[in-house]
Structures are given as structure tokens and as C-alpha cells.
Amino acid sequence: MVQFLSAMGCTYLYDSRQCHGHPEENNYADFVNGANNRKAIHVGDRPFGATDDDVYWKMHDDFMLTQADDLEFLLDNYRSLLYNGNFDIICNLGGNLEMLEHMTDWSGSADYYDAPTKVKA
Known about the structure:
Blueprint: H1 2-8, H2 28-33, H3 35-40, H4 54-59, H5 68-77, H6 93-101, H7 109-114
């Protein structure tokens, strides 16, 4: 990934067309701490707070481990939406399509593979 970003000359991972993110991307804590939002996600008065990197580093070695079984379970039991940005370097369309191509153990896989692909504006 470092080589890719260096070749691109940009460090913004979520839109390969631009080099810098939008400042409002960093205000998610304000959004999540809003009273209506806390109520909607059922956390009561428990505020969301910035954390240190302990969780990140404890899970660092797990990032690339497959979660295919968990995802197949979710797809079998819940209406699900898999979302990726068109120009996202990390959660990219090609990677998601490749992942789904290898997942055949969920009940809706045949319908998924037979469905026409279409672009929505």
C-alpha cells in the first residue's frame, strides 16, 4: 500500500482522485455524541470518545484474516448492504467483487451470481 500511495503522490486512502480528505470527516465524534444519534443507536447517555491506539494495535495482525464465514452467516440471516466507494483504495469495488466471487456457502449466492450487474446514477 505504501508503494501505491507513493506512486500516486497522495496519502488519502478513501478517494484516489484527491490527495486530501475533507475536514468534516474528522467530526464523527460530534455526530455520534449528538443526543438524537445516541438515542438512535441505543447507547443512552454513554458518550463516544476518542480512544488511543490500543485496540488498533491489538487487532493489527487480524486485519487480513478472512471473515468469510461470518459474512456468509450475516448474508443468510439478515438483509445486508455491502458498500464501498468508487475510488476507495482500502474498501474497493474490485476487492469486494473478488471476495464475493469466492463465497459460495450462503443460500443467496446463486441468485447473486445470476443477477444482472447495473450501474445506478
